[in-house]
Amino acid sequence: MAGYVLIVESDPELQRRIGDALREGQYELASEAEVKWAQRSVAVRAPDAVVVDTQLTDGDGFRLAEDLRRDPDTRDAPIFFIASSHRGASHRAEVRRRFAPAEYLDTPLDTNSLLALLLQALPPGTGTGDASANPPRPAQAPDVAQLVAALDGVLADPVQQRERRKVERVAKSIAGEKLELQGTLKRVPFARLLRRLYASKASGSLLLLRDASKESTKKIVVFEGGYPVSVKSNVLAECLGQILVSRKLITEAALTESIARMKTE
């Protein structure tokens, strides 16, 4: 595989065209429309190269480029700017100097030229998207679902138990209200639901149920302006801290200190 490329483009049609062209180079792709979401995407996985428009709906591509150059994981990743603004030879020279390695492509964009430049900068087999760079996990790795089920039966901390009761109470309250949005994730994938909530800048609580029984798994996701800001669950051991403690990646004391700091902040 040629590598992992992040496309940051607010124009849906242009984003699609860029994606179609880069797929011909067998690149692994991710696409975002805003600087904020691109920053979150980079935090999750560092790209081998970035294609970014100079003008986005929540700012410009130069701000994202500055973040990329400050991050050790993306300091040397090639950046391909789509010049929908700041056109001209002087801007091109400045960008190539300031964000090297970087290319500056004029609009209307020739996607074939973009692909050719990308293949030069990131030839097949050189990116972290190569399968050899990401070997499969050992077969003996513990199953997270089984781990959660085992842990949940032994957690007896009073604060955690209150959290469980609160989730059950809030879930019952939400279920009894006249809902603006309801359905099943079998018909609407969760990613599409998140996109819909983001597009409508929704604020409120989203209740997720695994089944309708009294002992069902319940999760409450709180949204503000379309962004998910917190998640609560009645399955206490699903919290990341408990899983890290169980795998001995952090200590119980570190978890307690982290929770205390989170509450004060």
Condensed summary:
The protein has ten helices and eight strands. The chain has two domains: 4-133, Rossmann fold (3-Layer(aba) Sandwich); 144-264, no CATH class. It has helices at residues 12-23, 35-44, 61-70, 89-98, 111-121, 144-152, 158-175, 190-199, 240-246, 252-264, and strands at residues 4-8, 28-32, 49-53, 79-83, 102-106, 204-209, 218-224, 227-233.
Model description:
With 265 residues, this protein is of the alpha/beta class. It has two domains: 4-133, 3-Layer(aba) Sandwich (Rossmann fold), CATH 3.40.50; 144-264, no CATH class. It has ten helices and eight strands. The strands form two sheets. It has a five-stranded parallel β-sheet with strand order 2-1-3-4-5, sandwiched between helices. A hairpin with a 2-residue loop joins strand 7 and strand 8 (227-233). Helix 1 (12-23) crosses helix 5 (111-121) and helix 2 runs parallel beside helix 3 (61-70). The longest helix has 18 residues, at 158-175. The protein is elongated and about 65 Å long.
SSE order and pairing:
Elements: E1 4-8, H1 12-23, E2 28-32, H2 35-44, E3 49-53, H3 61-70, E4 79-83, H4 89-98, E5 102-106, H5 111-121, H6 144-152, H7 158-175, H8 190-199, E6 204-209, E7 218-224, E8 227-233, H9 240-246, H10 252-264
Parallel strand pairs: 1-2, 1-3, 3-4, 4-5
Antiparallel strand pairs: 6-7, 7-8
Helix pairs in contact: 1-5, 2-3
